[in-house]
Protein 1
Amino acid sequence: MPSRPLKIDLHTHVLPERWPDLRERYGYGGFVQLAHDPAGGCARMMRDGECFRVVEPNLWSAERRLAECDRAGVDVQVLSTVPVMFSYWARPEHALDLSRLLNDHVASLVARWPRRFVGLGTVPLQDPDLAIGELERCVGELGLAGVQIGSHVNDWNLDRAELFPVFRRAAELGAAVFVHPWDMLGRERMTKYWLAWLVGMPTETTLAICSLVFGGVFERLPALRVGFAHGGGSFPGTLGRIEHGFHVRPDLCATDNALSPSAYVRRMWVDSLVHDADALRHIVRRFGAERVCLGTDYPFPLGEEVPGALIEGIEEFDEPTRQCLLGGAALQFLGLPPARFA
């Protein structure tokens, strides 16, 4: 472990360089494939013939990724798939097959570079029984620290009764659950200006948090460790409104859980990806430094270009606070000892 504070990037994404043609494998479309530039540069993430996103080799090249980490002073990356790969809309057996392919890839990177990478798997949440089986394989067989899940599963919010056994098993296994927004609500009204990413993502995360709080999932599973991407989305800035609504309309808000939302703020983790010093100060005050983890959304453009620069640029953060934000909080969330990276 370095003499400076351990720097762990909780929020990074990775894909294999290549995988089978999923339309051919499963017999229908909707899945993402990588179309590589023959010259060896960027690749296009293609879905049914349309380009979803252009990506660079650092999305799949571990060597490129590690070199960039070294330049940025990042000691450890937590690897998770790109959310478009969740495929909750697909037939469950096919989503399981794809999950296993992606999870095996993440596990292979962790096995090769155990001091540099930690892995989070993906599971087919549209079938909770299959999801539990793959969660158990991720933790027990592959040695991953937990799973990344979406902010909803088709028309199920995260308080849906069918999903509770998945959260219960995660708590029993000591598996971390990292919630990432995806398939944003209201997309039909956010086709311009990149609004699905700028407005829809923070809203999706807030909906996920409120579903777990109001639905009593945190209350029923006190050992469950859940983290949320992008600083908890809009939740920290709207908590006052949410809390007030809980108290003035308990007939609507307290139907499944009698404790107010503020009782759970220091029961969850968020990453530091808020792009604004005042916003970061606010979430550290609200959640506590021990619940805020460095996260960059590497290697995508909405991420933090220099990992940890926002944290390190706030002069009033003392050394213990910085140690928590840069790595200590992530270790707690992931359930890992610092000696793992010595």
Note: Residues 8-17+57-341 form a domain with the TIM Barrel fold (CATH 3.20.20.140).
Protein 2
Amino acid sequence: MAAPHIDPPRARATLALMVCALLAACASTRVSFQPAAPGPWCEPAAPAVVLWATRWRADQKDVAARESAAAAGLRDFFAPAGCFAHTELRRVDALPPAAVPGAPDAARLIGIEVQELGPVVKLLSSAALVEGGTEVVFRAVRYPARADGEAQSVTVHWRHGGPGVVKGVASLPQDLHAALQAGLMAGGAAPER
């Protein structure tokens, strides 16, 4: 009886996929705040106006796709009454340095500036050969209710990935949603997942 023929390239590809699948189980989420985490910003009983803008680096690729993903992620996060009772999203060119007129007096005024939103891939950086995931960086600004108050600002850096993880742009709205949840609702260390 003859031994079955095994195609070496196919066997290597199958083995590589199995190794990547095992290593993908090592994915984790990390969140850091600059300055330190301010605590939760969400107030489920209050309405809010959220001004949002983007500030991409000069060499940013696929700006239109990232803008679309940012809009979808923000809409998905703020649409249900969870962070605030009701949220009105307003796209602006840049976040104002201080509160702007036009927000209802009872509403909280929040600014979100998306600075990074995309997949990250590092080749040959570890024994896994490929390490990747998604990175989200945004600056959140809480504007004061009174004109003489001072705005609070925090930059949130959220990263989900690990050895063997390769992600594309399809998950970017969900990744921004998760980063907003970790930054605005939790306001502290993100759980490992």
Note: The CA atoms of residues 72 and 91 lie 12 Å apart.
